[in-house]
Specification:
Layout lengths: L12 H13 L5 E2 L12 H13 L5 E3 L7 H12 L5 E5 H4 L6 H12 L8 E4 L11 H8 L4 E6 L4 H11 L5 E4 L5 H7 L3 E2 L8 H9 L6 H11 L9 H8 L19 H20 L2 H4 L1
Parallel strand pairs: 1-2, 2-3, 3-4, 4-5, 5-6, 6-7
Helix pairs in contact: 6-7, 11-12
């Protein structure tokens, strides 16, 4: 999910409520409330907690959240327990907050077990290969060990490597752990191989198309839709999340385009036209799959 801000740079909870309704009306089946797209590294702990609580209290959908952004272990324990108290359905652990970029899986597992002891024993957990401030993926071997505990239910994969995705899916087979792919280019293959959904930034542009693809990946039209979505997904390299807020504005949401992670003043006229072109393509894809009739 995104975080809307007022012109005074405060979290805009009124706009956040409207955004919730928009996600639901466009077919999403769950919400990642505090993540990188939410600009969590630019939110203080009180804001992260208030956002997670607001979202959980204002939707019937499952809500997961992360929100541990600190480097220090004790600070992360404080952050994660504060998020857990909001009533969310699962806490999502950020891999690169647990270990450095080049530290071993053994170090990862040691720190993970210490962290687990500090979290509520009945709180479901998940993992997120967050790409900021650097990408650190869970290896298939680490996934296999983690999944054995049956405490982990959600894994947001961002590697974009279909061979590695398949190895990770094999590692979690027969456990409670489920993969949600964040990469559009590998999404349809991963769905056919056992991933259960999409959890990526493009759901902030046209979630209804990803919802359709996740439900209809064996449809004769699915491969063409997946190809078009892959090309559309290149816009995330533009000025995200500013462009996503601009796109939402053209879906009837009055969010503004203010961000903390990026300077909205860098959103140029060519960027506007590219985003509008994407929204027109969205409508063409919806006509192609007769989405109104499906929903």
């Amino acid at each position: 999910m995104l975080t809307p801000f007022t012109k005074k740079n405060d979290v805009d909870f009124s706009a956040l409520g409207k955004m919730l309704d928009w996600y639901v009306s466009n077919g999403v089946s769950g919400l990642f409330a505090v993540c990188q797209s939410s600009e969590m590294f630019f939110l203080n702990l009180d804001e992260r907690v208030r956002i997670a609580r607001f979202i959980k209290e204002n939707t019937s959908l499952p809500v997961v959240a992360s929100g541990h952004v600190s480097d220090g272990f004790d600070n992360q324990v404080e952050e994660l327990n504060a998020i857990a108290e909001t009533g969310i359905d699962a806490i999502i652990l950020v891999v690169n907050r647990l270990v450095g970029e080049y530290e071993s899986d053994e170090t990862l597992m040691d720190r993970l077990h210490k962290l687990e002891e500090k979290l509520p024993a009945d709180m479901p957990l998940g993992f997120y290969d967050c790409p900021y401030p650097y990408k650190r993926y869970l290896s298939p071997a680490a996934i296999e060990e983690i999944a054995k505990s049956n405490r982990y239910f959600f894994y947001k994969d961002t590697c974009g490597d279909i061979d590695l995705i398949r190895a990770k899916l094999d590692a979690m087979k027969g456990t409670n752990l489920r993969m949600y792919n964040a990469n559009t280019a590998t999404l349809i293959e991963s769905l056919r191989d056992g991933s259960v959904g999409y959890s990526g930034v493009m759901a902030n542009f046209h979630p209804e198309l990803y919802s359709w693809l996740c439900d209809n990946y064996e449809d004769p039209k699915a491969d063409k839709v997946a190809d078009l979505l892959t090309l559309c997904s290149l816009i995330e390299r533009q000025l995200y999340p500013v462009n996503a807020k601009y796109a939402m504005g053209h879906c009837g949401l009055d969010l503004g385009i203010f961000c903390r992670a990026k300077d909205y003043r860098e959103f140029t006229r060519p960027f506007e036209r590219e985003t509008l072109a994407l929204m027109r393509i969205t409508e063409q894809i919806k006509q192609y799959i007769e989405l109104e009739e499906v929903t």
